[in-house]
Predict the structure.
Amino acid sequence: MELQKRVISEDSAALAADDQDQELLDAAIQALERVYAPERHTVGCALRTVSGKIYVGVNIKACGYGPCAETIAIGNAFTVGDHQLSAIVAVKRSDDGKGYKIVSPCGNCRQMIVDYAPDTAIIYADGTEVRKARAVTLLPGHFQTRLTERPLLHLNGNGKSNGHAVRKQGERKS
């Protein structure tokens, strides 16, 4: 699957698609290809950290519910001490089974990414278009947790302050 060089950006030219996005997409597809099983693993994810390393994960279906691929990939990065995320993408097989398509993170994953890395670029699907936006713009009015309670103002999806506080990526609570 080839990512168009011009992904529609929600934020700025700084989020335009590049070769690193294609590498991330390829890694997500490869992760899913290694273990694809319709009854167990249907989504693959890849993320890049500011160190430049790529971490992957696949969803794990269990009785009723299981962790998403994004959760597994983030856990893989965090397990080795690489905590600063820069970009993330998830894929699943196309409906016809002949390829892959980019999928949007679910609400739980969006909240988790906002909690740990609000400025992370998320490559996601919006209908038939592929878009790229910072995590905080994909979850305006997000739930405030201890991780996001520090008073640093950010903007919601329409460019206006939403009054919610988030801590900058990598910043520790004082």
